[in-house]
Specification:
A hairpin with a 2-residue loop joins strand 1 and strand 2. It is built from 21 helices and 16 strands. The chain starts with 40 loop residues before the first strand and ends with a helix. The longest helix is centred in the C-terminal third of the chain and has 30 residues. It is extended and about 115 Å long. Helix 1 crosses helix 2, helix 2 packs across helix 5 and helix 8 packs across helix 16. It is α+β, with helices and mostly antiparallel strands. The protein has 4 domains: 123 residues, Triger factor/SurA peptide-binding fold (Orthogonal Bundle); 120 residues; 105 residues; 92 residues, Chitinase A, domain 3. Strands 4, 9, 10, 11 and 12 form a 5-stranded antiparallel sheet that branches.
Length: 602
């Protein structure tokens, strides 16, 4: 729009938007900066060091998350996380992928809205802008690269072949299924056992807080009346739209000194053509610049002052007085008006009525808010706003009958730490830009555990289910032991517990038509132990015996990338990360400074 204009004379304060704190971490909740590390290394990964300070920070972070875990376990996990992250960062860097500048800018614009907050962050963190930018860009590059690998074709041939081989793997498995239903049918409990279960699990039967409220909702629509718009108002609105909703194009003459601009404006008033002035500027007879203003709406121009001048002109060919802008002294000319699409009378009346309704809604609602805060009864406020009070009977925070009741400002007053008492007027809440709710709690029922006799059937069923699951685990252990030590007794045990033995050949993780439940299939492929016992989603107890694993070699080009790429899209990306880091570790040079690690542990 202003191709020939030099930069503004008065520079606008700018700041560097360099990274979104914490966004790039794949394995930890805080960034691992490339600079400022301690001189002592705890590990080396493909020639790159991991500092003892980074290790201490990671371990401290994990200890805060898992305070009950053993220190040695936490520190091993911290070191593994740092190694995995280093490996992944190296893979991303070697791929040639780089987190885009615009994405980095957009991320950090949301994090640091102004220069002051960014500078404060850097000062408190004790890091320069350049170091922070490099570190965060590396982390963001690694994270986005991982996301891309999980949802698109992987362009690393070695990784592609490794994962293709994993996906092509098949397993032969024998499953023993012990049904929950049979165990439940064989379980009989005394009243004393049911009572004991009830006493031990009372919190499971706790009924939540419940309330009964009176309320009404007022909205902008309540005040909209298109029929009230007169013909005169309609005509006035059309005239206004020509200025506010039209698009305009024009031209400008720009001068450094006001005196030069005033002289040029006087010549235009005396009949001098603009072309004569622009030719004089080109010839160096006048010191100034000129150009065109592209078609745009009000408020979208190069300068607020210039824009205001352009849209104040009445007719094509008119020129504005001299206006002072960020660029210098300007004279604005109007060359084109692109009128907005004309609305029919009905649509325009509705538009005017809605705008007026918004103003009335704000005014009336603000008065109603004040009345509520001053203790005015709900019914009186409803009368002022011409509303009818409604009632919502007994509901809890977990199951509100209407969406607006889940809004934090409403839910906090109903069920928060300082919940309203019965007959207490609530602070009104703006549901959105168009609606507000006024309400009061008419009755409240505190959370309580029902007496056993009122929920006896439910408790009895739950107790039998729990006892049956315990029995299933005991029976499963016995079956597993017989499988190992006494195969002849195995079939008798399976029959005694109404179980069954099932054999599966060539199970594949990519088989969408598998006879097995997807969760069961994942258990089979995520566990590498020969014997593995677990509960199925339906409660049955399964004992899995791995008979054989077939992993074909994958050489040359990968032809089925679509199949296993789409599989990652519908399965856990965590599993993807686990598989990748295992492969990276197998192909990396990793050394750990055991002396430093031992001193740290002590």
């Amino acid at each position: 729009m202003l191709d020939n204009i030099r930069e503004k004379k008065t520079s606008v304060t700018t700041y560097i938007l360099v990274g979104l704190a914490g966004l790039g971490m794949l394995f930890l909740g805080v960034p691992l900066f490339s600079g400022g590390q301690g001189s002592t290394s705890i590990a080396e990964v493909n020639g790159e060091n991991i500092s003892i300070s980074a290790f201490n920070n990671a371990a401290q972070n994990l200890r805060a998350q898992f305070p009950d875990a053993e220190l040695a376990t936490v520190e091993r996990a911290a070191l593994n996380q740092l190694i995995n992250k280093q490996l992944f960062n190296q893979t991303a860097a070697n791929s040639g992928y780089r987190y885009p500048d615009q994405a980095l800018y957009n991320d950090l614009k949301a994090q640091f809205p102004d220069d002051a907050s960014y500078k404060t962050f850097l000062e408190r963190s004790g890091i320069s802008a350049g170091a922070y930018e490099n570190s965060l860009r590396n982390d963001l590059t690694a994270r986005r690269y991982g996301e891309l690998m999980a949802i698109t074709h992987i362009d690393n041939p070695q990784i592609a072949r490794q994962f293709a081989a994993n996906f092509a793997q098949t397993r032969d498995v024998t499953l023993i299924r012990l049904p929950l239903a049979a165990a439940v049918s064989e379980t009989s409990l005394s009243e004393e056992q049911i009572s004991d279960y009830y006493n031990d699990h009372q919190q499971s039967y706790l009924t939540p807080d419940r309330v009964n409220i009176d309320y009404f909702i007022t909205s902008v629509d309540d005040f909209a009346d298109p029929q009230s718009i007169s013909d005169e108002e309609l005509a006035q609105a059309r005239d206004e739209m020509q200025k506010t909703d039209s698009r305009r194009a024009g031209s400008y003459l720009l001068f450094d000194q006001q005196e030069q601009a005033d002289n040029a404006r006087a010549q235009l008033s005396d009949g001098t053509l603009r072309d004569s002035l622009t030719q004089a500027i080109d010839a160096g007879e006048i010191s100034g610049e000129y150009g065109e203003l592209n078609l745009h709406k009000a408020g979208e121009g190069i300068s607020p002052a210039a824009d205001k001048a352009l849209f104040a002109l009445d007719a094509i060919g008119d020129y504005s007085p001299v206006v002072e802008t960020d660029y210098g002294y300007m004279i604005i000319g109007l060359s084109k008006i692109d009128a907005p699409e004309a609305l029919g009378d009905g649509a325009l009346r509705a538009q005017i009525a809605n705008k007026r309704a918004e103003e009335t809604y704000l005014s009336q609602t603000n008065q109603a808010f004040d009345a509520a805060q001053n203790g005015t009864a709900l019914a009186q406020i409803a009368t002022l706003l011409n509303q009818n009070v409604q009632n919502s009977d007994w509901f809890s925070a977990e199951r509100p009958p209407q969406d607006w009741m889940s809004q934090p400002e409403v839910s906090e007053q109903l069920f928060g730490e300082r919940a309203l008492e019965a007959e207490e007027m609530a602070q009104p809440v703006a549901i959105d830009d168009q609606r507000s709710v006024f309400f009061t709690v008419t009755a409240r029922e505190a959370a309580a555990v029902p007496e056993l006799d009122t929920i006896h059937a439910q408790v009895s069923d739950d107790a039998r289910q729990a006892a049956a699951r315990e029995a299933l685990e005991d029976n499963g252990n016995a079956v597993l032991q017989a499988w190992k030590d006494d195969p002849q007794a195995l079939d008798e045990l399976i029959s005694a517990h109404q179980g069954e033995r099932l054999s599966y050949q060539g199970l594949s993780f990519t088989d969408e038509n598998s006879a097995l439940d997807e969760a069961v299939l994942q258990q089979i492929f995520q566990q590498n132990a020969r014997d593995h016992a677990f509960f199925a989603p339906n409660g049955d107890y399964l004992i899995s015996h791995l008979d054989a694993v077939h992993t074909p070699a994958v050489d040359g080009e990968i032809n089925n990338l679509d199949q296993w790429t789409s599989l990652w899209q519908r399965t856990s990306q965590d599993l993807f990360a686990v598989g990748l880091t295992e492969w990276l570790r197998d192909n990396a040079k990793i050394s750990v400074n055991q002396d430093v690690l031992s001193r740290s542990a002590n």
